[in-house]
Amino acid sequence: MPEAIWLLLASLLSLAGMAWLALAMAVHWEQVMLQPAARAAGVRLLLRGTGACALALAAAACLLADRPSMALLVWLMLLAASALTVALTLAWRPALLRGLCPLRG
To answer: How far apart are the C-alpha atoms of 50 and 43, rounded to whole Å?
Structure first.
């Protein structure tokens, strides 16, 4: 059972990390937050670091859930699935990502 909890945590961290990395980009920031990206340069820099940390923590959670060879495979699959999910969210409902960034810049 603890493996399932670690994998769930890895999934959530991967999804949040990809969303934060997307929000760190100027184009997506303006699309989601409806304000100029230049006003939120500091917040976007913080999102970039937070997103990278979340993806690293997702890798650590995968390592805690399974042996290293399987953990790497699961982590790469989570990265791909999270990237696709964030991309489709940005395409169809970008306002859903607004809640992931409490700082508005």
So the answer is: 10
In the block, tokens 């699961």 appear at 74
Q: Does residue 78 contact residue 58 with C-beta atoms inside 8 Å?
A: yes
Distance between CA atoms of 73 and 79, rounded to whole angstroms? Answer: 10
Half-sphere exposure of 22 (CA within 13 A, CB side): 26
* Other beta carbons less than 10 A from residue 74's beta carbon: 21
H helices within 1-105, ranges in order? Answer: 2-23, 26-33, 41-65, 68-92
Contact between 45 and 38 (Cβ < 8 Å): no
pTM: 0.92
Asked if residue 28 lies in contact with residue 90, where contact means CB atoms within 8 angstroms, the answer is yes
d(CA 15, CA 76): 12
Distance from the first to the final alpha carbon of the chain? 41
| pLDDT tens digit sequence for 40-49 | 889 999 999 9
